[in-house]
């Protein structure tokens, strides 16, 4: 099956370097592309594609507008449709996710480093919310870390917009979205009107 993913990438003129993630949706590869250079691509099998995939792309396009541009939000680059996969290209982050900090608690980080990362995430969330969107799945695995080569700096970037939606207090949401234990208490009550406060709770 891995060959089918890589063959699809080659057909779309991506050169696969290595697989860097996988999930129920499909796989994520580090690739090279003549126009996009080094980037990451999320590959979703067509039969697994759903409205969340299109919502992710639509939210990403909205966030690319100049007035919402923010270095602490992951940039999505292109959407390609092959015969078997939807392929979403995005900037590559070379330090994995924020989960790496909790997985290695025996490596202490200075408090000023943690404060700097938190400030970046809060600024990213502020910019995200300025679009009128609610992320609905803020968690460690959806905060990517990137250190530009030679910079000596680390940037946190909010990613994965598959559950993002516009705030609409007039329409009650009838289904629960998110990841326990990062979900706010109001998401388990009825009527359930989802606001940007649920993202703040998840981050806190």
Q: Tally the helices.
A: 5
| Mean of pLDDT | 86
Outline the low-pLDDT stretches. Answer: none
The geometry reads as: globular
Assigned CATH class of the largest domain: Mainly Alpha
Query: Helices and strands, in N-to-C order?
Result: HEEEHEEHHEEEEH
CATH-assigned homologous superfamily of the largest domain: Transferase(Phosphotransferase) domain 1
* Name given to the CATH architecture of the largest domain: Orthogonal Bundle
Describe this structure in words.
The longest helix is centred in the middle third of the chain and has 19 residues, at 111-129. Helices cover 26% and strands 25% of the residues. The protein has two domains: 2-90, Phosphorylase Kinase, domain 1 (2-Layer Sandwich), CATH 3.30.200.20; 99-203, Transferase(Phosphotransferase) domain 1 (Transferase(Phosphotransferase), domain 1, Orthogonal Bundle). With 204 residues, it is α+β, with helices and mostly antiparallel strands. It starts with a helix and ends with a helix. The chain contains five helices and nine strands, in the order αβββαββααββββα. ATP binds at residue 42.
């Amino acid at each position: 099956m891995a060959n089918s993913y890589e063959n699809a990438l080659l057909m779309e003129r991506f050169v696969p370097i290595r697989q860097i993630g996988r999930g129920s949706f499909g796989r994520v590869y580090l690739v090279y592309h003549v126009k996009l250079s080094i980037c990451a691509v999320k590959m979703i099998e067509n039969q697994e594609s759903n409205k969340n995939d299109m919502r992710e792309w639509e939210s990403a396009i909205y966030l690319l507008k100049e007035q919402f541009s923010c270095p602490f939000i992951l940039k999505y680059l292109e959407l390609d449709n092959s015969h078997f996969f939807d392929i979403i290209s995005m900037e590559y982050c070379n330090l994995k996710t924020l989960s790496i900090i909790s997985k290695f608690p025996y490596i202490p980080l200075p408090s000023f480093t943690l404060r700097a990362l938190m400030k970046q995430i809060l600024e990213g969330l502020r910019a995200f919310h300025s679009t009128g969107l609610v992320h609905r799945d803020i968690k460690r695995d959806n905060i990517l870390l990137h250190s530009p080569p030679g910079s000596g700096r680390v940037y946190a970037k909010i990613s994965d917009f598959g559950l993002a939606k516009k705030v609409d207090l007039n329409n009650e949401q009838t289904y629960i979205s998110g990841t326990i234990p990062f979900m706010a208490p109001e998401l388990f009550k009825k009527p359930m009107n989802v606001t940007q406060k649920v993202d703040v709770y998840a981050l806190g």
